[in-house]
Amino acid sequence: MTQQTILTGIRANEEPTLGNYLGAIVPMVTLQRKYADTYRINMFVPDLHSFTTPIDHDSLYHNTLQNLKYFIAAGLDISNSNTHIYRQSYISAHSELTWILDCFTYVGEMQRMTQFKDKSGEHNASITMGLMNYPVLMAADILLYDAEWVPVGEDQFQHLEITRDIATRFNNKFGDIFTVPYETRTQTSFIERDNGLRIRSLTDPTKKMSKSSSDEKSKILLTDTPTVAHKKIMSATTDSIGSVDFNWELQPGVTNLLQIASILSNTPQDEINAQWRGSDRYGDLKQSVADEVALFLEKFQKKLDTISETELLAALEASERSMNQQANAVLLKAQQAVGLRPKA
Ligand code: TYM
C-alpha cells in the first residue's frame, strides 16, 4: 500500500485562537502521534491565503513562522522524517496549479461558498478576486500532495467538498490525475469525532470563535495572558435556563464550555458532561474551565519561548526543498493533462 498523507494548514492572517488550537492544531498533533510511522504528515502555513481580506502586511512574515511554532509548542515533532512543514508561497506549484484548476471551476460554485458570502458581506466595498478564488487555492494545496486526509474544523468542510468536486471533474476529463480526498464524514471519523469541531464565540455562542472578529472578548488568543483569558471565560455568555446540559440548540454557551473542557483535558465528552449535568452553578463551570484554559496558556507560552527560530528555519528550508519536488511532479501531471507539457 502506498503511504497515505494527512495534511492541514492554518492561515497567518491574525493570531490563532483557542478555536484554531482545538479545531486544527490538537487533532493534527494527535494524528502525528498515532500515525507518523506509517503516514506522511504535511503541516503547512497557507501564507498566500492570509491576505484574501485586509491584514497588517508588516506582520505576515513573522506570523507565518509563529504559526509553525504554535504547532511545535503543541507537540508536533518536526524531527520525524515523515513530517513535513512548509510555507505555501515557497512552493510555486501551489499558485501554478491554482490557475489550471481555476479554468475548471465555475464562478457560480465559488459565489455559493458560505465563507465567501459571509466575508464578502463584511468587506462589501472591497471583495477581491483572492477572496473568491480562495477555495481553488485550497484545492491546489491538497491535491498537490495526494492528501487523502485533511483534518479541519467544520467551517472548512464546504471547501473540502469543493476540492473533491474539482478533482473529480478534472479526473473525469483527463484520467486519473489527482487523488481525491475522503469526504467529510470519513474525515471526522478519522479524527474520532461524530461531527465537525466548531468552538463557539464566547460572547455569541451561536457563532464560531473567529480570529478575525473585532470583539476581543469573543475569542481566546494563544497570546492572551492567562489572566486575560481567565476573565474572558468568566464573562462568557451562557443562558437563563439554570441547569447545565450539553445541548447546542438550547444551551450553546455552556455546551461550548463543556466542549473546551473535554478537549483541553483530553477527557471524553460524556465524562465531562456527566460531571456537570444538572448543575445550577454556572459560575463553578466557568471557574473550572477558566482555570484549565489559564493553566494551558501558561504552559503553552513557556514552551513557545524555548523554540529556536534558527532550528525552525533550517527544518523548513530542508522540507521545502523536498516538497517542491513532490508538488512539481503532480503539477507536471496536470500540465501534461491540459496540454502545456508533452506527455511522457
Ligand atoms: P483558518 O486559518 O481559518 O483556520 C485554521 C483551522 O482552524 C479551524 N478553526 C476552527 N476549528 C474549530 N472551532 C473554531 N472556532 C475554528 N476556527 C477555525 C479551521 O477549520 C481550520 O481547520 N482555508 C483554511 C486554511 C487552509 C487549509 C488548506 C486547510 C488553506 N489551505 C488546505 C487545510 C488544507 C483556513 O482558512 O483556515
Question: Radius of gyration from the CA trace?
Answer: 21 Å
Estimate what percentage of residues fall within beta strands. under 5%
Distance between the termini: 25 Å
Oligomer: single chain
Quote the average pLDDT: 95
SSE succession: EHEHEHHHHHHHHHHH
**Hetero compounds:** tryptophanyl-5'AMP
Number of helices: 13
From the spread of the alpha carbons, the general shape counts as: globular
- pLDDT under 50 segments (min length 5)? none
Helicity level, as a percent range? 40-55%
Overall structural class, as computed from helix and strand content, comes to mainly alpha
Strands of the largest sheet, in order across it?
1-2-3
Which sheet architecture does the biggest sheet show? 3 strands, parallel
Query: How many DSSP E strands?
Result: 3
Concise summary:
The chain is mainly α and 344 residues long. It has helices spanning 18-35, 57-73, 93-102, 107-111, 114-122, 129-143, 157-174, 184-190, 226-234, 252-264, 269-276, 282-305, 309-338, and strands spanning 5-9, 40-45, 83-87.
Key phrases:
single chain; binds tryptophanyl-5'AMP; mainly alpha; 13 helices; three-stranded parallel beta sheet; 53% helix; 344 residues
Written account of the structure:
The chain has 13 helices and three strands, in the order βαβαβααααααααααα. The chain is mostly helical. It has a three-stranded parallel beta sheet. α3 packs across α6 (129-143). The chain binds tryptophanyl-5'AMP (TYM). Tryptophanyl-5'AMP (TYM) is lined by residues 7-11, 19-20, 23-24, 46, 49, 138, 141-142, 150, 152-153, 155-156, 159, 197-199, 208-209.
